[in-house]
Each structure stands twice: as C-alpha cells, then as structure tokens.
Amino acid sequence: MSDDARAAPDRWSGLRRLLGEPLLLALILLAALVLFVLPLGSVGRLALFATGGGSDAFVAALSSRSVQRALWHSLESSALAATLAAVVGGALGLLIGLSDLRGRVALSFAILMLIMIPPHVTAIAWMQMLGPSSVLLQALGMAPAPGTTNPLYSREGVIGLLALQQVPIVYLTMRAALRTLPRDLAEAARVNGAGPGRLLIRVILPLMAPAMLAGFALAFVSALGNFGVPALLGIPGRYVTLPVLMWQRLASSGPSVLVDMAVLAVLIGVLAVVAVSAQMRLTRAWSVALIGPPQQPLRLTLGRARRFVEVGLWAVLALVVLAPMLAMLATALVPTYGVRLSLQTATLDHFREVIFNQVVTVRAFANSAGLSIVAGAVVAGLALALGALQRGPFGGSARAVTTLAEIAYAVPGLVISVAFIIAFLKPLPGLGVSIYGTHWIILGAYLAAFLALGLKPVGVAYAALDPALEDAARVSGAAFWRRLWRIDAPLIAPAAASGAVLVMLTAWNEVTLSSILWARGTETLGTVIFNYEDGGYSTLASAMSIVSVLATLALMVLLHRVGRNLPPGIIPWRD
Amino acid sequence: MRRMILSTLAALTLSTAALADVTGNLVLYTSQPNEDAQKTVDAFMAANPGVTVEWVRDGTPKIMAKFRAELEAGAPQADVLLIADSVTMEGLKAEGLLMAHPDADISAYEPGIMDADKSWFATKLITTGIVYNTSAPVQPASYADLTAADVTAAFMMPSPLASGAATIHMVALTDVPELGWGFYETLAKQGAVADGGNGGVLKAVAGGEKLYGFLVDFLAIREAAKGAPVKFVFPTEGVSAVSEPVAILADTKNPDAAKAFVDFLISAPGQQLTADMGYLPAHPAIAPPEGFPARDTIKILPFDPAKALTDEAANKARFTEMFGG
Amino acid sequence: MSITLLNLSRRYGPARAVDTLSANIPTGCFFTVLGPSGCGKSTLLRLIAGLEPLDDGAIALEGRTVARPGLHVPPEARGVGVVFQSYALWPHMDVLSNVAFPIEAAGARRPAARTEAARHLQSVALSGFADRMPSQLSGGQRQRVALARCLAARARIVLMDEPLANLDPHLRIAMEEEMAAFHARAEATTLFITHDQREAMALSDLVAVMRSGRFEQIASPQELHDRPANAFVAGFIGRGVVLQAEVMVTAPGRAVLRLSPGLQVDARAESAKPGPAQVLLRPSDLRLDASGVSGRVLTCAYRGDHWEARVQVDTVAQPLLLSLWQRAAPGDVLTLAVSGGWVLPQD
C-alpha cells in the first residue's frame, strides 16, 4: 500500500486527473453553451446587430401601436395579477401556515392544483364554465343570454385567471418563509403582552414582508411569461400581450419575421430579468437575519371560527378548481359544442377519438410523456453534477451556470422558444442537419427553461449534506467519479427525483415552448390541446385536457409518495 | 345505375393503385379539420397498405408558416400539401416549389377548376356563407342583413390571418360592387369580431357566444346534423368558394406515393369519401351530401386568383387595420 | 519523519488560519494538537489531508512532498486516514459497506473487499453489526466503525478531528482507551486534534499547543505541565496563576524570586537571569503552613476530589490558587507557604 501511495503522484499528475472534475466541467459547460449561451446569444445578436435589427429596430418596435399596446397589456396584466395573487396567496399562507386548521396538507395540495393545471386548460375550463352554454350556469339559471360575449374575453378575464394561477406561487413562498420563523419570536411577543392581532401586525407581517415581495415578483414574472391564458382569452377579448403578439406573428408569418421577434424577445426578456434582480436586491435589503433554528411553526387557535373557515376555504377551492373541471368534463361529453348535456346526449366519442382514433393525439401523449421523462432525468443528472462541482475547485463556473439557468427560468417561455428557433433553424455547422422540427429542439428548450426547477431541491439537499461525508470518501481514496456515483448520487437521489418529477409535471403541462417549436411528429400534449381549442374543436380539446389533468394528478400523487422521506421544503405542499 | 358506375370506377382506381405498388412514408400538411384529415388518410392507407401517411393540421396561413420555417431550416418535411385555397398554390407554383403530376386523370372534371399545368388539383368545393344560432332573433338571408346594428354586434368571422377560406371570402366579397370594403368597414365599426379559424366561429355560434357568423358550409351543415343549434344560409348575393387543392411538393422524397395520394383524392372513390364526410365534392358525377342544395342552384361569386395573389399583402394589411391583429 | 510541516500557511482573506507553522512528527508517534476553538487546528488537519490547498510552505508525508505552491496531491492519493468529528459514516451504506469502501477504492473487487472489511470490523468488536445501518448504531459504535474504516484504508498516517467530542463524558474515557489500543494496532502515525487537555494528556506521546495558527510549544504531556514555554501554555494547561516577580538569585535549574516584600519562592527555572520575570504557581506549589503568609479566601469551588480556593494575599497582585481537603468559606483567613514554581522562559 505504501509503495502504491508513493507511486501515486505520478499516476495522478496528468490524464487521470483531467478525466475527473475537469471532464465533467467541460461537459457541463458544453451543455450550458448549447442550452443558454447559444440560443440567448443569438437572440441578442439578431436583435442588436442583424440587418433590420439594432437601435432603429427597437425604436420602430416601441413606436408600433400594436407593440405598445401589447407591452402595456403585458405590464398591466402581470402587475395587477401579481398584486391580487400576493393579497390572496399571502392571506392563505398566513391563515394555513399559522392557524390550527385541519387538513393543511390537503388544502395545500388543492391550492397547488391551481398551478398544476396548465394555463391553457384552465382557460378552456373557465371559458366553458362562464359562457352562455355553460352547463353549470344553465342549471343555476344564471347563464348569460345567447349572443353575450363570454365575460372572460376581456382585460378583467385575463387578469383574473392570471391572478388565480399565481396564487400558489405567493402561497408557497409565504409558507416556506413561515417555516423559518422561530417560534420563540412569536412566543416572546405574546409573553410581552401582544394579542394575536398585534402579534400579526407588529411581528409576523414585518418579518414576512421580504417573502411577500419575493412572492409578488415571482408571480409578476410568471404572469409576464404566461401564454395559455392571454392567448385563449385575450385574442378574442382584443387584449393581446407581448408573448401572444409574438406567437401570432411567428405562427402566421414564419421565419421572415425572426428579426422582429428577436427585438420583442429582448424587450420582454430584459423586463423579466430586471424584475427578478430588483426583487432579489429588495429582498436582501429588507430581510432581517433570523436567529435560531426553525422550529415547529406557530399554531394560533381559531376557536369556534375554525369550522366556518374550513368550510369556506373548501367551498371556494371547489368553486375555482373543481367546478371549471366539471364544466370541461361536461363539454367533453356532449356530441358537439352547444348541445345540452343530458343522459341522452352524453357520449364518450370524444374520449375514444383522442385516445384511440386521432394519430396526432396518441403521438402527442407519447411525445409529451417521453419528452418530460427525458427532460426530468437529464435535469436530475445535471443538477447532481452541478451540485458536486459547486463544492470543488470549479465552484465559480458551476455557480455561473446556475445563474444562467435561473435567468432562463425567469425569461418568458416564448423567448426561449424563439431563441431556439433562431439558434437552431439553420443546419448545424459541420453536420448539415437542422434539429428544427425534431424532438431535440423541444427537449433542448425544456432543459433550458426548466433546469432551475430541478436545481432548487437538489441545491437544498446538497446544502443539508454533511461535507465530511465527501471528505471521508476522498481520504478513503475514492476519485471524483467514484465519489459522485457511490456517495453523492445515492444521497441526493430523493431530492433529484422530486426535482425530476417537478420538471416532468411542468413539461407535461407546458404549451408555451412547444407552441412554435412543434412539427410533424413532435406535437406535444399542450400544442394539440391548444390547437384544438384554437381551431374550434372544443369537445376534443376538453376530452384531451381531462385525460392530461388526470395524468397530472397521478404524477402529483406519485411525488407525494416519493417525497415521504424527504426533508421538508422539497415537496411543495407537504408540511 | 349510378352506384354501378361508381363501383366500376372504384375497382379501376384500386387496380391502378395496386399496379403502381407504392410504398414508404408520406407526410401530408393539411388545413382540413383533424377528424376529416384522419379519415382521408385512413382511407388512403387502406387502399395503399404499403404507404404510411403522417399528417399535420393547422390553419392554412399557419401551416404555410411552418412549411416556410422548415424550408429555411433546410429540412422540408412535407411531401403533399392539402390546403384551403388555390391562391397560395399559385404562389408556390410560381416559386417552383411544386411538382407537376402530368399523368393525373382530370378528364372527369370541368375544365377551369384544375390547374392547366397539373401542378395542383381541386378536391372539393367549400363555400363560405352565413351561419346563425337557431335561437337568434334574426334569420339573415343576405350579407346586407348583417349590417343591422344588433346583428353585427353578435357577429363573428374567421380571420384571413388564420384561414385560407376566409382570405378568399374577403377578396370575393370586397369585389362585389354593392358590398366592397365599405361592407367590412361597417362590420368592424359596429363591433364585429374577426378571430381564428372556421372552427372558432362554429364554436362561438354553436355555444351562443355569438349568434351570427361567416362559416364554411360543411362545418355548419354537418354539426347541425349532429344536433348543434346552428343553421347555414347561402346568402342571396352568392357564396365565395375555395377548392381545397392538393399538390405535390418539389422536394418530396416519395413522389410515387405522393402521386398515388393525389390520384386517390381525385378518383371517384376519393370523391365519394369527400361527400360522405359532408363536403361538396369537386367531381361532377358524385352526388352532394345531405343538407346541400343542388349544385347548380349555388351562386358562386366571381374571383380573380392572379389579382388576389398580387394584392394579398395589401388586403391583409387593410383588414388588420380594421379589425386589429 | 512521518509528517513534516515547513512554514505552512493558509489564509482566509486577511485572517491567517495557519501561520508559517513548522513541525516534524516522528513515525509511529501519537501527536496531539491542542488548542482553543478557532486556533486553526482543524485547518491544519485539512491541509495535511489535502482537503484544503495551502497558500505557502510545504507538507511532506513519509518523505514525499504532497503539497507546496504549485503542487497539490489530492486527498485520495495521499494515503492518509481521517476520523471525523461527525464520524462521516455514509448513511446510505450498511456498516460493512462503509468499511469496505476504502478497500474497493484501492482497486479490490467487492467480495474481496467485504471479506477484508469483515476482519477489520472484528478488530473493533463489531462483527455482529455488519448489516446495520449507521443510524441504528450508538455513538460509541459509530466511532468504532469510523476507526475500522480508517484501519481498512491501511493508512500509515491517521488524522483524527476531535473524534471524542460528540460522545457522552462517561463513554469518552472508555473510547480513549480504545484510541490508544487502535494506535498501537494500526502502527500508524496519529495526529489527534482536540480542545480537551485531559484527552491530550492521557493519550499523547507529544502535544502541540496551538494558538492563532502557530504552535506555542511541542512537548510531552508532563513537560507541558511542568515546564510550559510561555504564559499562554501555562494558562491553557492545568490550573495555576502566572505572577510578575523579581529574580534575585540564580543557580543551574533553579532561581529564587521575590513575589512581594516578605514573600520569596525557590522555583525551577531554565536560563533565568536576575531581574523581572514571570513565575507560574500551580496549586500543588502552595500548601497550608501556619508560619506562612496569611490570605483571605475569595471563592471556594469543589473540584471532584478536593476543594480549590482562590486566596488573596495582600501583598500579591493576583489571587493564588490553593488545593484544600475541606471546604473554606469566603472571608476565612488562611496562612500558606509557597514551596515551588516555574519561571517562564524569557524571550
């Protein structure tokens, strides 16, 4: 052994050491180049330097009436929706996080459904619930008169549904922040004579302000990038946002408008990144370092009001989650849109059509399932590798890649897909093949847009890991890959798996990225549902949405099971 | 008697197809509704078991945008186009993107509805007229009826930016002297909505969100037969018509299968399938489906494809100004 | 020399965790680094293990230079074993796999590695626990698994980072004996880090007292106690008081000092010169003596087998420490004599 050890430095100098961390770093940097630098860089290059780009193009874009209008609509809808979501989500977070309500996990799960049901499906469901042919409203005798435009086709409709979808984001940030609130603080306030009201106003709310702000900013950015809601409600309501304007132009005109698209992409991308970094600064400036370990959260007793609060919450959740789904189910069951649902008219034809007959829907289910599973697995792998590199001598590079991933996550999905078209439309140099129109371009866009989602839980898990475990493996003689495989991978696996499931859920539900990247053979669930609805085939769209929501629920239940042994904070709805 | 002729024709076509013995993959880009596209493809594949057809469906302008993007990427996917209007086909032909099919048998068809160079072939006759919800207070009979303020307020049309048939409808209507652009102007001013494709209009009118609309005939007639509360009207001024032409792309990787597909569509069995799906077939010998008036009673508005092609961009811009993007 | 440290430095920003530190640790030695928390002793261990890069100086293990500016042999190639304060047992592997890991890392096949690992488990009397998970073990058992893993690495140099700190006090004594047995069995050079002087005294051949990134003194436990090199070591090791005094007369190995007018002491010394000096008085240097000087008891604390009183003698600047066999109350007046002391070497 000692002879071996003596010979070691010669073996270690040179190739073998390069095959460890440097090799992985090179692979990660290559991935970052392909996923982030190349696409986002090409958008910038096209917008700033191409013929027809540059400052003139920005001036022209900003002075165009339709762009001005879309920009204003984007800002207005995101800001108002985020404000509404901050109020409602913040209140829900405080109520559920600080009180002795029963069934908190189930409540959280139900609130999370608001974001787990994709925007375009939510929009379809609500349209059907509130339109003149709404089964629900007809039964209540409250249906709008025939000839009435759907009330959701309006500024208020867009903002309302956007706000509803962002509620879980604020709710989650509040719950996470409340979990770190030392119980002592609240108890000290109560011992010093503060009643629940004073406690809330003087102690808890000021401490929660940074979380509230973070939630608001996240909701703002998420609403800014939302495509499904403004596309399906805003186009008929003449309330077009910037991502929708980009999609309309690109979908109807093709690559001849790429330079204009790049200019718009840079505009909205910069807006999103500015919003996120402003939030980070403000949060840092506002936050007070909390001393003491997180403890069992505070449970204020609601007393006799508890029953009423519980019933009220569940009733509202049923109205905003369940009722639209039932309306959509009703549409999926009638022979053609506009026919009233009854035992005589009900038919499963549309389900048969989307599950068995339509080649494209079968393909879309397969594509979305395959793409989301692969994206989830690759993200888990990348997150594992990035986490391992972050501790080592290349930590700086790894953190830079993480930052890129966070920027890509903040930027609206449509910008990512435009970026991928611009970067990868032309055949790849040297290969002569273009990945445009293949699964690869969609997979790439998923990885770029969702990597940050998978990095979060893995980052938490790495931070919670005793660094001595890694050191022990090093001094036991294990080189980088052995450590990664035998020590890090098994220990991080549960967190990586839950990150992978989050990515899978998001990819399964997305429409923004694939809406302009899909081609023959690479249709995704989202694009098919969206195109059915956009083309007027509401019954098929509804049937497909129902199937996809059921699949989403199944995935969430799976995640719930997987997450049983994970540290708190990784599965969003668990306490 | 007619049935006998048909079955003979069918046998004839089938044997020709069998002789050619085509195989391989074929990619179809179409603007047909999903269910119809699926049925068409299934019937063709049943007749040509060696060929596997994959298809993509979107509105004509959108499917063309996708086609252009793929062309730009150097990886055109489509072998065959089956889209709403011949104007787009003329444009593609002028660019040299289409492949002629000189052996195609078009003897049964009226001269003039097919391309003389056999670059594209009409497959059916799709007219655009007026649809209304059966609960609507007014039953419009002409375009002029639509300019009543309360009618216009509940009126919707497919956007020429999303539908090829709507483009032709716009060109044909604005050429009618007593209507012209002033007619569209009036509609826009009184709050008419132009959005999406024909499917969207059907959904809005059937669902009662709108009561009146421009719509292609087959959608309205077919869905009414299924129980949807809609009725189709051939307005007194006339209807616009598109022929939903099919064409082979010059870049096709499987010209034999593409030709077989074209042959199938314009064959008598293919045309019978068209009628069975609820379309007015282009073949004069095939009877129109139920719900359609006799073909010679339909008044079709005149239309100049060459002029339409040159004016396309200007027309769309003018429309967008009125109704918004 | 098994471990050679030469002018070793490690900086974190402006702070120097290890500051131009040099030492030679002989082969087979049980060498303890003793110091207060934050003195840099853990950093020193991590530098030797290769878990941190050095900024300056050099480290040689068994005569082979493993680190100097421009050279950093990674930990996996240094052949040192480390026992961590948290034991760092991999929670996803059972006991046997934990112990077999270093053998596998050295290139052995899994079955062979497991056979060998079982032998090492036997030597720490944990044979029956091979398929337990670390979470199912007690603190002492975990400690023994960590030791077995270290044995399995067959390292010639073993570094221990406060391995007993997380154990209950009563378990600590038992484990100290195991440590000594382990050291004997492994025949390795052991570098042991602790802040507990009792541990250091009980286990070590040599103890280095560390402060602010430097070694203040390297000596055997007895010498550290009896002949501390400076006031810091004197204060850190054992009980005692350091006083200012005046050297009156010197002789080889001895010196007579005046603590105050009328209080003189004959102390051990090394190279003391007449003039002002510091003298260390341990409780064992003082005794009750009716003919001595009188002082007043300030406090009196029970130390387990005796009482320790802080006694103020009027003419002496600081209270002195005195061992008593029975309790004295604050305010009591005692007479005492100073029978010895140690004159701290002068710089």
Summarize the structure.
The complex is a heterotrimer of chains A (575), B (325) and C (347). Chain A is mainly alpha-helical.
Secondary structure elements and their pairing?
The complex is a heterotrimer of chains A (575), B (325) and C (347).
Chain A: H1 2-18, H2 21-49, H3 54-63, H4 65-98, H5 104-116, H6 119-130, H7 135-140, H8 155-179, H9 183-191, H10 196-225, H11 228-234, H12 242-253, H13 258-286, H14 305-333, H15 349-357, H16 359-391, H17 395-410, H18 413-424, H19 439-464, H20 467-475, H21 480-509, H22 525-535, H23 538-562
Helix pairs in contact in A: 2-3, 2-13, 2-16, 2-17, 2-18, 2-19, 3-13, 4-8, 4-10, 4-12, 5-8, 5-14, 6-11, 6-14, 8-10, 8-11, 9-10, 10-13, 12-13, 13-18, 14-23, 15-16, 15-23, 16-17, 16-19, 16-21, 16-22, 17-19, 18-19, 19-21, 20-21, 21-23, 22-23
Chain B: H1 2-20, E1 24-30, H2 34-47, E2 51-57, H3 60-72, E3 80-82, H4 86-94, E4 98-99, E5 120-122, E6 124-133, H5 149-153, E7 155-157, H6 164-175, H7 180-189, E8 193-194, H8 198-207, E9 212-216, H9 217-225, E10 230-233, E11 240-242, E12 245-249, H10 255-266, H11 268-276, E13 280-281, H12 305-323
Parallel strand pairs in B: 1-2, 1-3, 7-8, 7-9
Antiparallel strand pairs in B: 3-12, 4-12, 5-12, 6-9, 6-10, 6-11, 6-13
Chain C: E1 3-12, E2 15-25, E3 30-34, H1 41-49, E4 56-61, E5 64-68, E6 71-72, E7 80-83, H2 95-105, H3 110-123, H4 139-152, E8 157-161, H5 169-186, E9 189-194, H6 197-203, E10 206-211, E11 214-219, H7 221-226, H8 231-236, E12 241-251, E13 254-260, E14 263-268, E15 275-281, E16 286-302, E17 307-313, E18 320-324, E19 333-338, E20 342-343
Parallel strand pairs in C: 3-9, 3-10, 7-8, 8-9
Antiparallel strand pairs in C: 1-2, 1-4, 4-5, 5-6, 10-11, 12-13, 12-15, 13-14, 15-20, 16-17, 16-19, 17-18
What would your notes on this structure say?
- The complex is a heterotrimer of chains A (575), B (325) and C (347).
- By secondary structure, chain A is an all-alpha fold.
- Helix content of chain A is 75%, strand content 0%.
- Chain A is built from 23 helices and no strands.
- In chain A, α4 (65-98) packs across α12 (242-253), α19 packs across α21 (480-509) and α22 runs antiparallel to α23.
- The radius of gyration of chain A is 25 Å and the shape is globular.
- Chain B is an alpha/beta fold and 325 residues long.
- In chain B, α2 links the parallel β1 and β2.
- In chain B, α4 (86-94) crosses α12.
- Residues 1-19 of chain B have low confidence and may be disordered.
- Chain C is α+β, with helices and mostly antiparallel strands and 347 residues long.
- Chain C is built from eight helices and 20 strands.
- In chain C, α3 (110-123) packs across α4 and α4 (139-152) runs parallel beside α5.
- The mean pLDDT of chain C is 90.
- The chains are: A mainly alpha (575), B alpha/beta (325), C alpha+beta (347).
- At the A-B interface, α12 and α22 of A face α2, β2, α3 and α8 of B.
